[in-house]
Prior knowledge:
Elements lengths: L14 E5 L7 H8 L5 E5 L3 H5 L16 E5 L10 H15 L7 E3 L5 H13 L7 E4 L10 H6 L3 E5 H6 L11 H4 E6 L16 H11 L7 E4 L4 H20 L1
Parallel strand pairs: 1-2, 1-8, 2-3, 3-4, 4-5, 5-6, 6-7, 7-8
Amino acid sequence: MSTCSSNNKIKPNMVIAAxxxxxxxxxxxxxxxxQDLVQEVGIILFETQACLKYTENDLSLDLASLDLSYxxxxxxxxxxxxxxxxxxxxVKKLVDKTAYLSPRGYVLHPPPQREQFLSFCQIWQDLGxxxxxxxxxxxxxxxxYYLWPDLLETECKVCLDLGHILAFSQEHIMSYRHLWDKIxxxxxxxxxxxxxxxxxxxxxxxxxxxxxxxxxxxxxxTVIVLEVFTPKDLQESLDIFSTWISKWISG
Length: 251
C-alpha cells in the first residue's frame, strides 16, 4: 500500500487510543482487552438513558488501576430539544459516574444552536468543570463554523474527526483560524466505502494526505483515536498506522 510523502515534522509522542466498543461485550471487558494494545481508551457513551443505568458490570472500579488513561465520549442523543439544563443534568450524572477514571476530557457532539453551546459551556464551568476538558467534534451537518469565533474566546478544545471531513466535504475546516491550537484529539479510520469506520487499510489517498497534514500540525501529545469497532480492524489499523508513522518520521 502506498503512503503519502514523508514529513519529519510529525510528532513522535502521540497518545494512541481506541474506543470502548471493539469487542461486543461490556466496557470493562473491552478495557481489559485494550490495555495491551493502546495507551488510552475512549469510553463511548452511545445512548444517554442506557449509559445512566450502567452498573459495576460496565464501569467497574478496577478500571482505574489498569495501565490506561481515559477520555469520555458523551452520548450522541443528548436531548437538546428539551433545553440545556435538562442536557446538563444528564451530562453531570455521567461525569460523576466516570469521575473515578480521571478522564483527560469529554468529547461533545455540538448542539444545533450557538446559544445552546454558550449556555452549556457556562453551566459546565459553573459546575466547576474545566472548559479545557470539553472537546467539540465536527459532525455531519455541523463543521463547527458557526461556533468558531466563540470557541476561540473559550478554553474549549476540538476533537477533529478526519473521517467526517472526508465523508461530509468539510475540508475547509483545515483553514480555520488557529485550528491547531485548539485540536487536542484526532479521530481516524478508513473512508473508501463511506462513513463506516473501516480499517485504515481502506483509507483513500486523499485520506492519507489529510492524515499526514494533520500529524505535521498537531500539538505535542495529541490523542490519536483509531475509531474502529472490530478487533480485526483495530489490530490491522494499529499495524498500518505504526508503519506509516515510522516511514513519515524517518523518510
